[in-house]
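== Item description ==
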Amino acid sequence: MKINPDEIILVSACLAGINCKFDNDMKKNDKIVRLLLEGRAIPLCPEILAGFKTPRPAMEIINGDGKDVLESRANVMDKNGNDYTKKIIEGARKVLKVVKILNIRKAILKSKSPSCGKDLIFDGTFNGNLIKGDGVLTALLKKHGIKVYSEKEI
């Protein structure tokens, strides 16, 4: 991934060392932290922007991926069957609003997440199985022409 020194990049807040994952943990990535300290990245968490607290129930996309969620063909639920689809979409839309205001063209997002996952997400069985697909935020950003990378691609 090539980064223009003048561009601001959206990054998943958990990758920047902020404890905002569902289990109140983070997935700190030193390259992301360096971008943040250089003033070249803005950390956001769509789930926190949607009003979720930490910790919160683990969620997965049921019967599809983020694109399917945006097209009302799949849902985001926890293992007890609670439906969080509307809130997850709301958080993704709030991030998109910031991206548009700041004219952000690239994002580095947390892999496997129902919100931020790129290329691979959990399959909705809560058994740790992965399927091809994107999370809701990733699908929304791609739909609006934003280039999305996972932390594994930087």
User: Anything to note?
Assistant: The longest helix spans residues 85-101. The chain has one domain: 9-153.
